[in-house]
Amino acid sequence: MTLSTIKPTKQDHQVAKLAALATVLSLIEFFLPSPIPGVKPGIANIITLYALIKFNFHVAFWVSIIRVLVTSILVGSFLNPTFFLSLTGALFSLGILFLTKNLYGKCFGLLSLSLVASIFHIIGQFIIVRIWIIPHDGIYNLLPLFLLSAFLFGLVNGIIVYRVLQQKPSKYNVK
Amino acid sequence: MKKSYKFTKLVNIGDIVFISICFGIILFSFFQMINLPRGEYIKIEDGTHNEFVFSLESNVEKKIGGPLGDTIIVIQNNKARIQSSPCNKKYCIHQGWINKINETIVCIPNKISLSIIGKTPSYDSINY
What we know:
The complex is a heterodimer.
Chain A: H1 10-31, H2 45-54, H3 57-75, H4 81-100, H5 110-133, H6 143-166
Helix pairs in contact in A: 1-2, 1-3, 2-3, 2-6, 3-4, 4-5, 5-6
Chain B: H1 13-35, E1 41-45, E2 51-55, E3 60-65, E4 70-76, E5 79-84, H2 91-94, E6 104-107, E7 112-117
Antiparallel strand pairs in B: 1-2, 1-7, 3-4, 4-5, 6-7
């Protein structure tokens, strides 16, 4: 028997727990019927935002990326266009969160952070769709609708993260 | 581990400003969607896979034959419509003028379709 040389740190455990939670939320969302293809609440991003506020950007980054990978493998869309869409969305929203995370607490609160992440999520996906999947200008007609849904769900997710962060620690909390 | 968790109010001044800016941009984009992209050409197809392409800037009255009879298509002032059709329900006529990219009028009984296209060829959708 070989000895394991990788020692998981406390932060690795946190990433694993949060990523598992985010994956479950992602799967629930996958099976929910959606009124328009592409319009989804993005409830898994609650966990990303929670990880960013409660811990740091490093944890949030890995939670988001692992969530995308594991969910795509579980629903069988790994390396499909769908997978690349969600990966791009996740990377774009992580990028803008990295740039704006220091503004949190200075005039700006959770709502702005959640809103900017969800809007950049949809903008990133739109760029990929325009370049690769439907290379036609006609899809710009859909942009206002998607931006509106990102706006609404971004606000709702921000409120949910706020409420989650207000909870007192219990034995069920991720520590 | 550094704790970056700071507790702030749900709604701060910056939030209100940012949310209203976003809302303004979204309203503006809805407004843009109503106004913008005009097509350049109109493609007319009949039931025998003949295709006719006209510029929307031309003033044309085109008669196209289908299984039921002749459909008259009018192009003027950068827009197009079906003026008369031998079909029963006249949905194609009631649809009125079209001029935006990817707008279509289809007359199924007479097997005629008009669609507005831009400068570059496009895909309707791609399946995988």
